[in-house]
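Appendix B. Raw example, untouched.
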Amino acid sequence: MSKHPKHVSVAEPTLIISNALHVGATYRVAADRLNADGYLPDDDFRLARDVQDIDRRLPDFNAAYLRDCHGHVMALRDELSPLGRSETQTLTSLLAVHGKLVNAAGQGPLNQFEGLGGLAIVEEDIALLFKKTGTERAGAAARAVIAYAANACDTAVLSRRHQEFDGLAGPVAARSGLSFTRVVHDLWRHGSIKDDDPRRKLDPSRVKSHPLFDAPSGQFLEEASASMRDIMPELTGARDHPIWGRAIIENDIGEFQAAAEQMRTRTNSGQKVQTKVHARVMMALASMIERAGLNVSQLAPASGATASLFAICASASARSHVYQKRAREQASPTRQSSARH
């Protein structure tokens, strides 16, 4: 039995896509959360696991794909039993909007969050109307359309989440608060990293079982830094590679050392500033460790050293996010003073 009260309204069903876009969650995460919180019944067709395979890459939402999508949706509409007059008018309007959004994609670069997000919202509304006819064929058509919506939603959400992606998963994990392995998977789904990327080989259980994963901050920094010093002589490959070359790793080491020195120097800058410095230290550590892991993987993609470095990066990314969140929650002296009056 759910510990949450049921909030489901038959007249006005909860919309998964709008919720997902609002909170920046992928379709499956938002759907499962709404179901767990009692806003969607367990038998809602939009929750079906065959609606979306999260272990497959997302489609390329180019103009040709979108035109094919619109044509398929129109064909599905033509196969269904007639709706009531009001619902038919609503469906006609939704299909017209769907066509306009698809046509707009062919006129120039598509803003994926706004363009695909809007398209996904319309597709969910269309799927719900299809489902209303109540026939078995209508149910299949509704699932086909919600599958389009789920993929459009995820592409929209991930395009925004990954907009600052520069080849490293650690900073994305630190900003989003998601696990390193989850971010790597989503980057792969979104087409940002390749099938054979060594980071995809990292087992989530390996991350949590790493000796440093839950180590105290001081011990973590000391031993992670020592791991980096130990691995430096083993780094290979092109010095000027933009992601894992020695030159950019050395730049990250400089950033880490500068941030660590600032952290060690006690100042009167306030708790919030110090917390931000801790976040910066962990972010710099995550970056240089991930680059080192990618460098080592060029010769031994499945080595224990590579997995260990990625696990340390995962922990540093999570710690950076915690510090960033804590800094946002810490009120400045001015705001604290204002709050007392």
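End of appendix B.
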